[in-house]
Amino acid sequence: MLRVATWNVNSIRSRKELVFMWLERVPVEILCLQELKTENHNFPFLDFERLGYKCYVHGQKAYNGVAICSKFGLEDVFKGIGDARFDVESRVIGGRLKDLWLINCYFPHGEERGGKKFYYKLEFYDAFCKFLEKSFSPSDRIVLVGDMNVALEDIDVYDPVVLKDTIGTMPEERQALRRLLDWGFVDAFRYLYPNKVEFTWWDYIGGAIWKNQGMRIDYIFITEPLLKSLKDVFVDTWARKKRQPKPSDHAPVVGVFEL
To answer: Would you call the peptide bond into 245 cis, given omega within 30 degrees of 0 as the criterion?
Structure first.
């Protein structure tokens, strides 16, 4: 079995203790992290190495940052999407494990319609799709994970009426995310559980986690050649419900493959 997890940790330095507590509980082979909020030299490489992980890190001071921590060595590791407009931020890292490609991405949060960050988010999605078209084929075995900052359908938010046309639910954002599916990806969780209501992010404010007032914005996307290998996808809310050490506002999502 190969277990691949994605987790926006909202600062690896603040969440390090929790991450290692979680890994004792759910010992995944590959852990993809987003929002490291630290430069490479401050990443806890040695702590991961003690658990048998080799980490590939694309850090950035105070913002963004992504990493792949793997029990297996990766080849052809790349950082960014080859577009200078977006590669000034550390949002994408990928690599190859034999014939399996792993891509970890932290998509922009954006803002309300019409703002500069709103358009930046849409332009990033467009550039990412062009990167896929140039670099890969839907016939490749690819696992794309990350915080995509979009709830694809109404089922992916706790209240579609209250959250209609807010950040992460606007039609333009959802269409941008669907372009990845149109290219050739499958939403692994929704493929296995078409009607299941599950979230991956809950605001810190108002006890949202205890009321389950969340959104599903963290995904595991896979190409069609991997569908037969997919056995399960689950969200581990244990990591989000911890009171001490303070959790991230996201929970880890784990994909289980028979490879």
So the answer is: yes
Cα–Cα distance between 241 and 232 in angstroms, integer?
22
Tokens at 4, concatenated: 């691949």
What one-letter code names the amino acid at 137? S
Q: Please check whether residue 182 is in contact with residue 126, taking contact to mean a CB–CB distance below 8 angstroms.
A: no
Helix (H, G, I), strand (E, B) or coil at 48: helix
Residues recorded for the chain: 259
3-state DSSP assignment of residue 13: helix
Task: Indicate the average pLDDT of the chain.
Answer: 98
Exposure string for 136-164, b = 16+ CB within 10 A, e = fewer: beeebbbbbbbbbbbbbeeebbbeeeebe
* Pairing of β 2-8 and β 30-34: parallel
Q: What Cα–Cα distance (Å) separates residue 6 from each residue in 56, 112, 221, 256?
A: 14, 26, 11, 12
Q: Residue 222's pLDDT band (boundaries 50, 70, 90)?
A: very high
Q: How far is Cα 14 from Cα 35, in angstroms, rounded to an integer?
A: 11
| pLDDT classification of 123: cutoffs 50, 70, 90 | very high
Q: What is the mean pLDDT of residues 29-53?
A: 98
SS3 annotation, 186-243: EEHHHHHCCCCCCCCEECCHHHHHHHCCEECCEEEEEEHHHHHHEEEEEECCHHHHCC
The whole-number average pLDDT for the span 153-165 is: 98
Q: Which residues pair with 103 in a beta bridge?
A: 94, 144
Measured N-to-C along each axis, helices 116-135 and 171-183 cross at an angle, to the nearest 10 degrees, of: 10
